[in-house]
Amino acid sequence: MLKIRDLNVHYGGIHALKGVTLDVPESKIITLVGANGAGKSTLLRTISALVTATSGSIKFTGHEILGMESHDIVQDGIAMAPEGRKVFVNLSVSDNLLMGAYNRKNAGEIKTDMEWIYSIFPRLEERMSQQAGTLSGGEQQMLAVGRALMSRPKLLMLDEPSLGLAPLLISEVFRVIGQIHDEGTTILLIEQNAMAALNIADYGYVMETGKIVLEGTGRDLLNDERVKKAYLGESI
Fold it and tell me: What is residue 235's predicted lDDT score, i.e. its pLDDT?
């Protein structure tokens, strides 16, 4: 579904992505783990056309999307729940969700999808008229994911969905990711919580200083001594 080949990104004199190559097959959960500053968020922002690549290729469902505008990429079927949630704090929960459907026209389908989001996140339904800025961190994360889903994406990109959340809420977030996947959405997951991410992933990549240094099934990476030492808090 998504094929990235030899992708390079520079910020001034910084070589942020160094020849990144990875695949996101349809109907799979693919995760990218690595330390803070490894380039994970830069990769998602480049896919979304929020960052300009120096060279390389990003193909989605067979066609090149590098060089397209961000709104056209959303229209094409890629949505992102960004790091830090970035909800519209002065808008209600329901209006935030409607913002995710800005490129859709069928009011009936939008209403059906709102109900679907509320079935996944019952707490959002309880707070539908509440300003997003008054929600807890966990509720704002649910809202960011729900807003992304309102575009009905073929590929959902999640950037650090568990960041700053209490352990109980982290478990809930990963349960919901599994549910969304089970309902047919392909997921590219960026996470510092390597244990949780690799446990849910079909396949994973490890990024260090802008490069992919390891890849394999989620289970294989969980059992890799290098991953254990660097990301799972275990010594060899």
Answer: 44
